[in-house]
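Our preliminary data section would be incomplete without showing what the modeling component actually yields. Below, a chain of 470 amino acids is followed by its predicted structure, encoded as tokens that our downstream tools consume directly.
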Amino acid sequence: MGAWNWFAAIRVAIVLFILWAALSALTTLIPQGQEQAYYVQKYGRTIGGAIMGLGFHHAYTSFPYVAVVALFLTSLFVCSVRRTKRAWRSTVKAKLDFQPGTIEKMRNRRVIVPGGRMTSQDVASQLRRLGFAVKAAGDSEGRQLFLARRGTIAPWGMAAVHFSLLIIFVGAFIGRTPWFGGFSSSLIIREGETAYDQPAHMAHSGADWKPRFDFGIRLVDFWIDRDQNGAIKDYTSRVEVVEGDKVVENKDIEVNKPLFYKGVKFYQSSYLTEGAKVEVTTPEGETQELLFPNSNNNSPDAPYVPDMMSWPQIALKDGTEMRFFAHGCVVNSEMDLLPGRRGESPPPGMKMRLYLVEQKKDATQWPQIGWVSADQPTDFQGLKFRVAGLVDATVLSVRRDPGMPVVWFGCALAVLGLLVGLYVRETTMMVCLSQKGNRSELLAGASAKGDSQAAEKHLNKLERAIAGGK
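Predicted structure:
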């Protein structure tokens, strides 16, 4: 019982909670998910090594953090069990085991003399009319003892609050654990594209990736609403939910208006410029598209910069494959300041410098196609090149949280427990009925936790009821 009593101590719970809060605050000061060289360079060899050794580069899964949370939850569980036992003993298992001397020691007590002789049934009836649950028994001297209680649900209020915190933690664990089907990720979709739960679209899928939903999300359109000063007011993704070949739902996803479908929620998170499109028209009149990915899309507001390592290709009818390389791009920087949509496609003044990739030659000897714009097609070896514009992509936060109903139940239980604890007053009355000749006499005492005036009030009501007063 030593360990049990240690965990049940309130001071232990407070210390563990403070440690948990301190570790949580520490995680906000230490950048997460970096390599060891980063921490050594930023904090020095000693502190950087300590961060890596303690696992604070992934703080929420580090041993110190998990250990403190586990100890705190153990303390919370022990306290919850104790509260429940106490509530059970004081309500369901309450015993009538007092003596008249117990009443005489109570702060709120009085002697009540009724107008005539009263039976034990009369006293019990009056107590029940006042809203008390009554237990009665006789003692060895012929007196009748009554234990009357009301508001017996009050002890269960704090027990419910304790257990509600455990339930909330369980719900959070269920929602974040793949064992129960919960996950959180990001979905990147280009305009006109249909994305599925596949590594090509889902961020942070991992090596053990498995599909978690069986429908597709098609990005029909994406736009940004701005005020007159060019500041972003909102951004919206107009999407379609696709199952097989059918569109089963349409939705405009905004920052505070997610899409909810089959237990999966899609939140508007951010946006990116995925790349730039160039249309290539062959001598036969066939048009193909080249997508030059953006190497600078870590920030939504970062300018488009062609990815030097990406060489998109087209295939001609004779089987010839041609790869192309973009070395530069000029975009009118004022396009993002226009109110309404992000900008025209292609933006005004946009042009790109392209080269034909010949891998057998040094890159400095690759044939230059020249600057390609949207205004005037550029001819090269019978092909016509024209800039088609930037390719925007929306970034949606995707989440399935099977633990959310459990969390909401825990929150509701916490609110209910607090309301019971705050507004339900547990009151106990002890009454001793004795017969003295032709008259009866009652010794009554009352206690209301934290409220002496309430106890006195109930004694007054009992006295009026028994004495026949108004």
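The chain has a mean pLDDT of 84. The longest helix spans residues 63-90. Preliminary results of this kind motivate Aim 1 of the renewal.
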